[in-house]
Design a protein that fits this description.
The chain is mainly alpha-helical and about 260 residues long. The protein is about 70% helix and about 0% strand. Helix 2 runs parallel beside helix 4, helix 3 runs antiparallel to helix 7 and helix 6 crosses helix 8. It starts with 17 loop residues before the first helix and ends in a 7-residue tail after the last helix.
């Protein structure tokens, strides 16, 4: 096995020539190489995006986030995959263990690839001094959007195995949709336990933080803080405009609505 082949984009999911790509995935040849290749791509992509997230705080936070984000993805897969495999096997799936792992990893790789495609956008908002809570919500939106495309890739691969090859039960596709919900909740809980990823620049670095509440209350709090910061900026802007007005204009009567 050549070391140079471990990091290859041959198995990077694409929306073009889907049938050819899916055929290459479920082909039982070089299964170990495919798993190692996809795992390495997933690690590299999530590491890059994690570094982009943590750069809001410091270099140390960026390095830590670059480790935490890949750990989050792999832990979520490790926790949720056994349930998926056993249920699919009971339903009559003829896909073996390595084929299922490859299909799931391909969707995760696509999601992580879409995430790093938004890295320039994230860096732009970092450089322009965007609000911490805005950046937090931006990252959540990017991850959700990327996850939708990744899960669609997996569903399409399972449908191909069902309709074209007849080695996967049709009901398995519907069951997978429920598994996605479980996977999302596990990922959210893991992310909450591994926080912070972004890091508030106004607070000292900590490897892990302990907050009361949960992920959902934190999202609501972020929206509230973002709204408060916008309201706070409005009086400051009005006072600046008022200070720049000529003295005579300050004595003019105000128009009534």
């Amino acid at each position: 096995m050549k070391r140079s082949n471990l990091l290859s984009f041959n198995y990077l999911p694409s929306f073009q020539n889907k049938e050819e790509f899916f055929q290459k995935l479920i082909n039982e040849e070089n299964s170990l190489m495919k798993i190692m290749n996809l795992s390495l791509l997933l690690f590299v992509f999530t590491c890059i995006y994690g570094i982009a997230m943590g750069s809001n705080h410091s270099v140390l936070q960026a390095l830590v986030a670059g480790i935490k984000l890949p750990l989050l993805f792999f832990l979520a897969l490790l926790i949720c995959f056994p349930a998926f495999y056993i249920v699919q096997y009971i339903l009559g799936s003829k896909l073996n263990l390595s084929q299922m792992i490859i299909i799931i990893l391909s969707g995760m790789v696509l999601a992580s690839a879409i995430m790093i495609s938004f890295a320039p956008v994230v860096i732009f908002f970092l450089l322009t001094g965007s609000n911490y809570y805005f950046l937090q919500l931006l990252h959540i939106a990017i991850i959700i959007l990327s996850g939708i495309f990744g899960m669609k890739e997996i569903i399409d691969a399972l449908k191909f195995s069902c309709e074209q090859k007849g080695i996967y039960p049709r009901i398995g596709v519907e069951v997978f949709r429920f598994w996605v919900i479980i996977f999302a909740f596990v990922g959210i809980q893991l992310a909450w336990n591994l926080r912070p990823f972004l890091g508030d620049s106004g607070k000292p670095f900590k490897l892990f933080r302990k907050y009361e509440g949960n992920f959902y209350t934190a999202i609501i709090y972020s929206f509230q803080q973002l709204a408060k910061s916008e309201k706070k900026d409005q009086p400051e802007k009005q006072s600046k405009v008022r200070d720049n007005l000529p003295l005579d204009s300050l004595w003019l009567p105000r128009e009534r609505n």
